[in-house]
Write the C-alpha cells for this entry.
Amino acid sequence: MQQADTQQVTPPQATPPQATQPQVQERVPVLDLAPEIDALWDEINGAIQDVLRSGQFIMGPAVRAFEEEVAAYLGTRHAVGVNSGTDALVIALRALGVGPGDEVVTTPFTFFATAEAVSGLGAEPVFVDVDPDTFNLDLDQAEAAVTPRTKALLPVHLFGRPVDMARLTGLAERHGLAVVEDCAQSFGARYEGRMTGTIGELGAYSFFPSKNLGAYGDGGLIATDDDALAEAARMLRTHGSKRKYYNEVCGYNSRLDALQAAVLRVKLPRIEANNAGRRAVARRYNEALGGVEGLVVPEVVDGHVFHQYTVRVLGGRRDAVQAALKEEGIETMIYYPVPCHRLPIYADRAWRLPVSEQLSREVLSLPIWPGMPEGVQGRVIDAVERACAGAG
C-alpha cells in the first residue's frame, strides 16, 4: 500500500490564510508578449500551417508577399528580407561599398551590433557623443568628426525616437556621405511624415521578438529606393549570386525565414495600433512620474514609437532604485550599461564621450507593451515613486 493511503488528512484551519500568508503579487515583466500571442493564436497558426503545407521554406511566396506588403507600408520601392537586424546593417553598409580604410560616424550609445557591423567589414566606427535629452547622435559633434576617410553616417533611432533627419541629411549632403539608418528599435516611427529607414540611402530593421514588429525568432529587413543598392543587397544575402550557382562575390547566407515572414504578415497590419498603444502607456507614465524628484522622463514627441520607455535616475541612485523595484516584482532593464566605445574590443582607443558614459550610469527602462493594463502600469508607477523616495 502506498504511503499516501495511510496518511491522515488535516482539515483546514479556521484562521484565514491571509492572516499568516500574505498574497504575493505576480512579477511585472519588461515586456509581456502573452496577450499578443493569445489574441493572434489562430491566425498565426493558420499562417504557419500554410507555409508548412506549401513546402516552400526558403525564399518562398510568404517572404515575397511580406516584402511587398512591408514596402507598401514603409512607402519604399524595395524591401529585402534578411536573417537578422545585424545582417541588415552589414549588408546595407557593404552594398554601399564600405570596407577597409573607411570610417563610419555613429553613436556609442546603442547595442553593439551597430558598431560590430562596421568593424566586421574592416572599417572604423567613429563614435561621437549623444544628446542627453533624446539619447540620439549629437549632430554638431557628428559633423566635426567627418574626415576625408568618412564614407557614411550611421544614426540609430534609439528607443524608437527619430533622429533629426533634416539636419543629418543636410550634413551628409554637405560632405558627400551616404546614410544608413539603424531602425532596429523604430519600426513604424515617422519623421516629418516619412518612415524612419526611408530617408537615408538605406534603412536596416530588426524583427527580434521584442521589437515593435517582432517575429518569433530572428529576422531583419533592408529598405531602399535605390534599384542598384537593392540588387546588391539581394545578391549579398544569397551567397553573392543573382542566379543560383553563379556567384559573383563572397556574400552571406542571410535570407528571411518563410515561417518568420508568415508571422510578420499577420502582425504587420496591427503595427499602427500597437505603436499607438505604446505611446499611450508612455503618456500615462509621464503624467504620473513627471514630477518625481531626481527622475527625468522622456519626451513624447510626434513619431516616437517607444520601443523602450527609458528614464534617467539622477544622483547615483539608479542601481538602488532598480534593486528596490526588483524587490516589488517589477522587472527593469538597463540599455546600455556599457557604451560601445568602452567595450573591450575598442579598449585601445582613447575615446572620451562623457554624456554617453553618464547616461550608462543613469538610464533605466520600465515595463512597456501595447495594451499594458492600467492597473499593472499603476503598480509600476507606485513602485517607482516608493523606490525613488527610498533611494533619496
